[in-house]
Structure formats: C-alpha cells, structure tokens
Specification:
Blueprint (H helix, E strand, L loop, with lengths): L10 E4 L18 E4 L5 H15 L4 H17 L6 H5 L16 H15 L12 E4 L11 E6 L2 E5 L8
Antiparallel strand pairs: 1-2, 3-5, 4-5
Helix pairs in contact: 1-2, 1-4, 2-4
C-alpha cells in the first residue's frame, strides 16, 4: 500500500495492532483494527493513554478528549514530532515523567478508551485546533503568544494563530 499523506487521515486496516475500532472503540476486543494513517498502533495507544491519565485524569470525558485533541493536533502540525509517542515524550512539554505506574485501574481504563476513540478518528471539535494547554492553576509565560481557543474543566487551550486540523 502506498504511503498516504497525513492530511488525508485515511483509514487503514491493520490486523497486527491492538487498537480496535467500532462505533465506539473497545481496547479489550479482537486484533483487527482500523486506525488513522500515521498515528501508529499499540505504541501510540499506550503513549496517548499514559498522557491522558497523567495530564487529565481528574477531568471529565470532554477534558480528556480535549487533551487527546491537542496531542493529535501536534502530530499533524509539522511543528512537533510526527508521532504520538514523539509528541508525548518531547522534552519539556508535559509535566509527568515517563514510566510512572497508572495506579487507578478505572481511570486508566477510561483514559485508554478515550485514547482509542481519538486514534480511531473521533471528531476533534472541542479545542478549535489547539496545540497547547495548561491548567488554570498556572499562567505560563508562553500563553500570551497564542490564541486562546477554549477552557474545558481546569485546562485552558491555545493554538498558534491558525487551525492545524479539521477532523
């Protein structure tokens, strides 16, 4: 199969990944999967799950979906690493340390489901193309350089002028 441009967000079938897709993706079901081209498989699911758990575990579903949007918007932007794990583990971008244990099983399962849905192509309609966020508890020096798009739960979202994804 020829390599498809990331902007097409084409769906590809991959029987070797542990990222299932249905009307609502269920990480506990079979090996057959559909995933957005360019987002990878099990590694991407694990990286995105970890980021959602540690960055937005206390948020509702919308707050966690919004953080997933930011990560996928970064992958698509060309200004950040071009993989989910690359974005999640980019030095100085997220506040948690790689490899921490997700102790709350229910919160980890919810984060994994939201991550699976995001990777399966769930609409990115919450943050208006945001590629940055921070909690309301801080006011980082960079926040004035970007366009504020929304506030969801205890996070404020920003983008660099223009939208980078229309999914």
């Amino acid at each position: 199969m020829p390599k498809l441009p990331r902007k097409l967000a084409a769906l590809v079938l991959s029987a070797s990944l542990a990222l299932p897709v249905a009307a609502t993706a269920d990480p506990a079901t079979g090996p057959e999967t559909l995933t957005q081209a360019g987002y990878g498989g099990a590694d991407s699911l694990n990286c995105l799950t970890e980021a959602l758990y540690f960055e937005a575990r206390g948020e509702g579903r919308s707050g966690q979906r919004a953080v997933a949007e930011v990560i996928l918007n970064r992958v698509d932007s060309g200004a950040f690493p071009n993989s989910v794990c690359g974005v999640v583990y980019q030095r100085g971008q997220f506040s948690y340390k790689k490899g921490l244990r997700m102790a709350n099983a229910a919160a980890a399962a919810r984060a994994r489901q939201i991550a699976a849905d995001a990777l399966a192509g769930a609409p990115r309609s919450l943050t208006d193309g945001a590629t940055y966020f921070h909690t309301t508890a801080v006011r980082p020096s960079w926040s004035h350089r970007f366009t504020r798009t929304t506030k969801i739960g205890s996070h404020i979202f920003y983008r660099n002028g223009r939208r980078v994804a229309s999914n």
